[in-house]
Design goal:
With about 400 residues, this protein is an all-alpha fold. It has 14 helices and no strands.
Length: about 400
């Protein structure tokens, strides 16, 4: 190989590495903005005078924005390229941050949450696919690891950032948004150095896509989606009602403490996906199901006994189990799906997850109105445990009826 060829190869690798770092930052800061409101909801309730049920509805509207965005725009980065879609996602994130910064009523909160959901929808598929293409194709699991850390790490960081700021800094409903907005603007400028990885473009067709899963991964995909969806449902309820539980039941007013419960859950999810590097697909899903059953049981026990310690432990276990399931699903997609269908498959996967994130939160909100906070959480915990048990039993049944295709983690 000539010196010029080696130099060109080194330059390409350097550009891909730099591009992966920039995409990761864009992915991370977009998701940070989506969880900043979590520990601030009690303050918004006081400021704008809405009820506890409204909190769960607002949270569900965010999830709805993500699902609609994934279904309508899930294939967009396959058609026009990854970088333009990531740029639009960042611009929407900036607008959402600005709406929250200027919010004076509930209507603006709702608009901000829907915009945040759309920004998350656009970046989830595009950035996950871009990272799979920018990071060496010889290490597909590495790309899955980076994308999950950007995704779940952003969700964890946003809630902790706003919780701490709300306790120690003035103007807690404004300052967190200033910080996140400035970082999102910085990500827009950083995006200029990202190489485009889509070589063949196709005409834009904006229509509601059917949920499409490549036939060769359908069984593994469905199991991962159900398990991760049950975990996301638990994470959604923790995110939307943990502040209410701490305030109404434990009489804790610390926003940092409320944020810490959610942070532990999402940080656990980010860590959990690392376990998929050492587990086969079947072992990963079985472990995730067991973790969800145990975590849901501890969550119900925490609500019944009004215990903070076990609530934090349950959040960690549910988070790790969810991360294992999500990591298994993303690894399956990135390792076994053709590049031209990768963003579509990722979008389908996360559409299912975010539907599970939002709908149960509203259901729990309605249950709270009729039965109270603790009974509602206990009923919900039982539903999560049953879903995980169904998948676990299907895994055992599959092992008895015939071997299931496994792949080695790299």
């Amino acid at each position: 190989m000539s010196n010029a060829s080696r130099a060109d190869g080194a330059t390409t690798r350097s550009g891909s590495t730099s591009g992966a770092v920039r995409v990761t930052f864009a992915f991370w800061i977009t998701l940070v903005g989506t969880t900043v409101p979590t520990p601030l909801y009690p303050l918004y309730e006081t400021e704008f005078g809405f009820a506890s049920l409204t909190v769960t509805v607002v949270y569900a509207l965010y999830a709805l924005g993500v699902v609609v965005g994934l279904l309508v725009f899930g294939r967009l980065s396959d058609q026009i390229g990854r970088r333009p879609v990531i740029l639009v996602a960042l611009l929407l994130s900036v607008v959402a941050d600005a709406v929250f910064l200027a919010a004076v009523d509930l209507a603006m909160i709702i608009v901000g949450r829907i915009l945040a959901g759309l920004s998350a929808a656009l970046i989830i598929g595009a950035a996950t696919a871009a990272l799979a293409e920018l990071i060496s194709p010889r290490h597909p699991k590495r790309a899955a690891t980076v994308s999950i850390f950007a995704n779940l790490g952003g969700l964890a960081t946003g809630t902790l950032l706003s919780g701490i700021v709300a306790d120690v800094a003035p103007d807690p409903l404004r300052l967190p948004w200033v910080i996140v907005l400035l970082l999102a603007v910085a990500a827009i400028f950083a995006l200029r150095g990202v190489p485009e990885t889509v070589r063949e473009r196709s005409p834009v067709t904006l229509r509601v896509q059917r949920l499409h899963v490549p036939a060769n991964i359908r069984g593994a995909f469905v199991r991962s989606a159900i398990t991760a969806g049950a975990g996301f449902a638990a994470l959604g309820v923790l995110t939307s009602v943990s502040g209410l539980f701490l305030g109404m039941v434990l009489h804790e007013t610390s926003h940092t403490l409320a944020a810490l419960v959610v942070f532990v859950a999402f940080a656990g999810a980010a860590f959990g996906q690392l376990l998929t590097r050492v587990l086969s697909s079947r072992a990963a899903l079985a472990s995730a199901c067991v973790g969800l059953i145990v975590g849901a049981g501890l969550l119900a026990f925490s609500m019944w006994m009004a215990l903070l310690g076990t609530l934090v432990i349950s959040a960690a276990i549910i988070g790790v189990a969810s991360g294992v399931a999500v990591g298994d699903g993303i690894a399956t997609i990135t390792m076994k799906t053709e590049p031209q269908h990768r963003a579509e498959a990722v979008s389908t996967f996360f559409a299912i997850l975010f539907a599970m994130l939002g709908v149960p939160a509203v259901g729990v909100g309605l249950l709270i109105q009729g039965t109270g906070l603790r009974p509602a959480a206990e009923i919900f915990s039982a539903v999560v445990a049953v879903l995980a048990l169904v998948v676990l039993l299907s895994l055992f049944r599959g092992s008895r009826t015939g071997p299931r295709t496994e792949y080695r983690r790299t």
